Design the sequence.
């Protein structure tokens, strides 16, 4: 394997207990825009590797938990400065390894940097507080305690930002971490691990185990010494992990999963904003965002005009290698992504969708070695319940335009999926967006914006089958700490709350 030619020159290793550890088996990470380019090589870890990492994290927990929040935050601040130093290099790596255009690769790294800065600042925020007791001589406190070893399992589409949503709050609070990056983006994970090591996290505090979900990931989920699992990825895998971990009653699982998101365009919408928001929501990251809008729910009064304007713009979307400045849509991540896109497109036709833009799988010339497809757009003039293509996540540039009569039908259609992640509404009427805000099911809502876009000081997560109520970024500290009550008596006798007698 040493002879493999890699673009980044990175031969990733596992990092366990402060040591870079080689593995007998390895796998290649390929550039989805040109699969002749090997971005790097990473270990195909075994269950034994995963167990070693958990044991190292368990040992490190005993001393790491003794450090102050401020000291831990200082190391996170070191890390933030290294991220800033390497921002451009990392942005290009994200584009090379997961295909999204460079402006999106950079936004991923900038969001990661923001998370590091935000969490470093949290080190000097209150991490508990005093409350009154019924009894004047008692002081009562609500405090946060770390949980122990936390496993962070992350997807490929935000290979830098999403791991940091999970890892940094965990270590700030005194937990130790085993990180399993996606097997599609191991080199981005490796680069993060290099920076963690350089920033000065002590051995065992953050460990990385590469490899497949089925082998390394599964072993981490099942390990008895793991206290919590922070998972971001598909609904099928999230459900499996939640059910598997439930066998151990003490294990906590936070799952952030997929969506069948929508942009609702009401009759009074500014059509320029509507079309822009829909193109960004549908085609940024080639539709491979958990928050991508696969459904455009449009009031019938304006649907023909909206559709014409949307198609005009969608036809102008430039597809290609994300390192080129003029490219809007990079490749899909792999052949499975293309197969899924084709399957959803075929189902849309079978189920009665009117195809308006029959996007092609691009295989010639510059596209020959990548996973490139064009936007696929179809229309249902009337909503059809129980339709696969309108209810299931396609994770690709596959978009339905659905005609509806007014706001109430729009929200009924929006809610008719098992998911509840992201919703955008386009209207000039504050009474209307307020009604939609209160009646649609989602974790992320937007007005006169695309259904995409996150900031780290806001919670990021969904409802229904999109997430189990423990959002990432802001607020994740709740998932990685136990909140404990602690009461101290200052009197020379025992006096109990609720007038409970102390007479023996
Ligand atoms: P995925 O296939 O579910 O994989 C996510 C992670 O889980 C990967 O690291 C994967 O490893 C691992 N994994 C797979 N099987 C496992 C198992 N049995 N035990 C433990 N770990 C396992 O998702 P993906 O394709 O990487 O990402 C796309 C999905 O993520 C979409 O559904 C998208 O909507 C969702 N997503 C959600 C959010 C959110 O915040 N709600 C954000 C981004 C993406 P391998 O890489 O080896 O398979």
Sequence:
């Amino acid at each position: 394997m040493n002879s493999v030619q890699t673009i980044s020159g990175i031969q990733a290793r596992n990092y366990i207990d402060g040591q870079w550890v080689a593995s007998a088996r390895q796998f290649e990470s390929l550039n989805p825009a040109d699969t002749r380019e090997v971005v790097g090589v990473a270990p195909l870890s075994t269950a034994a590797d995963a167990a070693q990492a958990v044991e190292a994290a368990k040992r490190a927990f005993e001393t790491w938990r003794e450090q102050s929040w401020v000291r831990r935050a200082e190391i996170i601040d070191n890390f933030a400065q290294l991220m800033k130093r390497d921002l451009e290099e990392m942005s290009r790596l994200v584009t090379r390894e997961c295909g999204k255009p460079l402006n999106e690769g950079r936004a991923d790294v900038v969001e990661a940097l923001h998370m590091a800065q935000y969490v470093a600042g949290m080190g000097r925020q209150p991490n508990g507080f005093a409350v009154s007791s019924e009894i004047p001589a008692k002081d009562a406190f609500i405090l946060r305690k770390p949980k122990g070893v936390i496993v962070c399992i992350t997807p490929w589409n935000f290979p830098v930002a999403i791991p940091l949503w999970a890892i940094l709050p965990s270590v700030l609070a005194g937990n130790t971490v085993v990180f399993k990056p996606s097997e599609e983006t191991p080199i981005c994970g490796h680069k993060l691990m290099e920076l963690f090591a350089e920033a000065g996290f002590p051995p065992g505090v953050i460990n990385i185990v590469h490899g497949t979900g089925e082998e390394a990931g599964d072993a981490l989920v099942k390990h008895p010494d793991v206290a919590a699992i922070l998972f971001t990825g598909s609904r099928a895998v999230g459900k499996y992990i939640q059910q598997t971990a439930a066998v151990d009653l003490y294990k906590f699982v936070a799952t952030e999963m997929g969506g069948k998101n929508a942009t609702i365009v009401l009759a009074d919408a500014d059509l320029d904003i509507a079309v822009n928001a829909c193109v960004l929501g549908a085609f940024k990251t080639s539709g491979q965002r958990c928050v991508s809008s696969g459904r455009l729910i449009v009031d019938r009064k304006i649907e023909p005009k909206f559709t014409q304007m949307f198609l005009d713009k969608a036809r102008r979307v430039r597809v290609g290698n994300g390192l080129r400045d003029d490219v809007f849509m990079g490749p899909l991540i792999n052949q499975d992504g293309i197969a899924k896109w084709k399957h959803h497109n075929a189902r849309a036709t079978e189920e009665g969708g009117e195809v308006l833009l029959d996007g092609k799988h691009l295989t010639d010339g510059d596209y020959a070695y990548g996973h490139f497809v064009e936007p696929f757009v179809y229309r249902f003039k009337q909503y059809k319940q129980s339709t696969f293509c309108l209810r299931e996540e396609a994770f690709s540039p596959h978009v339905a335009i659905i005609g509806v009569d007014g706001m109430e039908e729009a929200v009924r259609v929006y809610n008719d999926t098992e998911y509840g992640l992201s919703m955008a509404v386009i209207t000039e009427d504050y009474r209307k967006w307020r009604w939609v805000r209160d009646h649609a099911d989602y974790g992320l809502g937007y007005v006169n914006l695309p259904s995409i876009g996150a900031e780290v000081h806001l919670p990021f997560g969904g409802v229904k089958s999109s997430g189990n109520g423990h959002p990432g970024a802001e607020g994740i500290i709740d998932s990685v700490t136990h909140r404990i009550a602690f009461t101290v008596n200052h009197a020379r006798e025992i006096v109990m709350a609720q007038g409970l007698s102390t007479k023996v």
Q: What stands out?
A: The pocket of NAP is lined by residues 153-158, 162, 180, 182-184, 212-214, 217-218, 221, 232-234, 237, 240-241, 256-259, 290, 393, 395, 421, 460, 462, 467, 472 (CB under 6 Å). The mean pLDDT is 96. The radius of gyration is 24 Å.
